[in-house]
Amino acid sequence: MLTFQSINIPLPAIDQTAIVTWVKAVAATYGRQVGDIAYIFVDDEEILRVNRQFLQHDYYTDIITFDYGSPRVISGDLFISLDTVRSNAEGLHVPYEQELHRVIIHGILHLCGINDKGPGEREQMEAAENRALSAFAGLKL
Length: 141
What we know:
The chain is of the alpha/beta class. The chain has one domain (2-140): Collagenase (Catalytic Domain) (3-Layer(aba) Sandwich), CATH 3.40.390.30. It has helices spanning 16-29, 44-55, 82-92, 96-111, 121-140, and strands at residues 2-6, 33-42, 63-67, 73-81. Helix 3 (82-92) packs across helix 4. The longest helix is centred in the last third of the chain and has 20 residues, at 121-140.
């Protein structure tokens, strides 16, 4: 089950039903089922607090993914800073909604086992994000 909540900010205006359908479809392409996933939308100060407390990282980020799943079932908490998503969208000259959807699926791809820190992994993640974003556009037609 997917849940959507926020800390310190309003929930973003997203189509939660479409997001649920999309996440399940993307997970299925990796042979995974969806368990309990919590999207927690936060501001920059909260993402920094979470990053410091749990990962000992002293910087802002757009998403932090906590994986509680098993090899076949993805589950986890996904903290998304809407402030950083907005800043990234502006810096990349893309619509905010597009960047938000990219970050929303980025966490799911991590839960499906795709990494983005090692050699060549960033390119694999970007390709997976682009495929997923195209699939989402198809759902919305």
